[in-house]
Amino acid sequence: MTEYGLDVIATALAAGLLVLSTHVPLGRRVLARGIIFIDIAVAQFASLGVVVAHLAHWEEMWQVQIVAFTAAIGGAALLNLSERLWPQVQEAVIGSSFVVVASLSMVLLAQDPHGGEYLRELLIGQILWSSWSGLMPLALMSILVLAAWYGGACRSASGFYLLFAVAVTVSVQIVGVYLVFASLILPALAANRLGARSGLATAYAVGATGYGAGLLLSLRYDLPAGAIIVCTLCLACFASLLLTTVLRRAGEVQPAAAEAER
After folding, report:
1. pLDDT in tens, 186-204
2. CATH architecture type of domain 3-261
């Protein structure tokens, strides 16, 4: 592999690891709360903000971030309100929100000659085009979200939704809607039957393996990076679940409840 290829992989992998740093703990909380599709819904709200900024010709990074963040916060606030008012149908509200906002994005871009390509980029991302300087907003966001997360800001529903919106706003512009969802859910799912300590480590390992393998395959076979990383994350998740099941049956892995008791 050429020096250029190695540099592309290094930058893209750094982007992926930064995304995973916040999305793994968030994803484990999403899975525990049973609101699986909140991630893809909030990501779609942020994506709608990017579309609005594009149509308004606000191309400066800070302008795009403000509009995307406002849209994500607005979406998160609406979903938080629906959880308070109609908790029994929260998943239906979240799923409907995703479909409506995605459709609105398509309507807004219908007259744009490059609208189809723009939507594609928002869905599968442009992780291979990452640059070290361009990762600075993502790195700063990751530090702030993790500090707030471990500082206890996620204890309330409002705090959780706010952190979620902040994390997704920047990451969706780099890795796309599909990979945001995969980064949140698949590593968390891979470690779902493990306890807090081993589960977090396993989730990060699965995420890093999925990103690394996907990026290598993307460059080797000229495949769309976002799409192939989703696939390799899925394979890594399946392998982890299979290995955990085999080891548990052999008595080598303690269930989550047993680990928590210790």
Report:
1. 999 999 877 767 899 999 9
2. Orthogonal Bundle (1.10)
This prediction has a pTM of 0.86
Residue 257 in this model has a pLDDT that exceeds 60: no
pLDDT value of position 262: 46
Q: Which of 13, 26, 62, 47 shows the shortest CA–CA distance to 178?
A: 47
The stretches of the chain forming alpha helices (DSSP H) are 3-33, 38-55, 61-85, 90-108, 115-124, 136-150, 157-190, 196-221, 225-249, 256-261
Distance CA 176, CA 129 (A): 12
- As given in the structure block, the two tokens for residue 131 are 């640059």
What would the pLDDT profile of 27-43 be if each residue is shown by its tens digit?
999 888 888 888 889 99
* 8 A C-beta contact, residue 201 and residue 104: no
User: Domain limits of the chain?
Assistant: 3-261
Token pair belonging to 31: 């899975």
Find tokens 């959780």 and name the residue: 160
User: Residue 27 and residue 98: Cα distance in Å, rounded?
Assistant: 17
